[in-house]
Amino acid sequence: MARGHDVTLFATADSLTAARLHAEAPAGYEEDPSIDVKVCESLHIAAVFERAARFDVISNQFDFLPLTYSRLTATPVVTTIHGFSSERIVPVYRAYDDIAHYVSISDANRHPALRYAATIHHGLDLTQFTPGPGDGGYLLFLGRIHPDKGAHLAIEVARRTGMPLVIAGVVHDEAYFRTLVEPHVDGDLVRFVGSVGPAERDRLLGGAAALLHLIDFEEPFGLSVVEALAAGTPVIATPRGSLPELLRDGATGFLVADADEAVTAVGRLPTIRRQDCRREAETRFSADRMVDDYERLFHDVVASGRERRPPAG
Known about the structure:
Layout: E1 8-10, E2 20-22, H1 37-50, E3 58-60, E4 77-81, H2 90-95, E5 101-104, E6 118-119, E7 138-142, H3 151-161, E8 165-168, H4 174-181, E9 190-194, H5 198-207, E10 208-213, H6 223-230, E11 235-237, H7 243-246, E12 253-255, H8 259-267, H9 274-284, H10 287-308
Parallel strand pairs: 1-2, 3-4, 4-5, 5-6, 7-8, 7-10, 8-9, 10-11, 11-12
């Protein structure tokens, strides 16, 4: 919108946007249990494609289901794949690979069976992140409380280094939290603060000596990692999935194989310059850079479609 494009956003009625808003549901179905998920999804996607002729391009951020409409319109559909919940959904993507324009959120998250138009990393509104001095004297875990995310390993690193750990995030696995996380929460070495809003997130990131991201899965992107960089905070992470793309080992953090290497990395944190972390976020992970990438791709997709279109008559 700020760059002069005429944008229609298909989203819930409570969405805040400068664009023209079209809503089929009053709110997200996780916020309103009275909403029928399938009914809202059906009406939502149909609303887009019934109006497809009005648009130069449709940007699909809604997973694979809208692809099943994409042969019914001449308007190109650019689909950002935010990850694969299961290998079972890949056949839908393959079925539309010949006409689709797929965007991956990292090179690591590309599926070998699909063709991609671009890789576009996420971008942040950097005004929401204040470069901090990292003088809080603590390590930070920020993310879902789930075995994949490695909160228990962050606790081990805190215990072995003697450096306090703050854990912030939503509990996604209650059994894991009760057995491997909660017993170590003592309010001293390990503090659990739950889900945090933007202001508290900014404060925690800015005060942390490092973010611990010791994951045990192939991370599609890792938003908390670039949020940390935006606050000037180095990241100690396992090199799984996108992490080698996001971090420069020894410059904006450390890529480590296990807890032993993570403990060693904590001792090396003074070698990382926090201004370099912030500069990396400004250069590679800003919202402006992301919009540049999408704007360029949309122009290319629309232009290539016009070239292929047969002459009138």
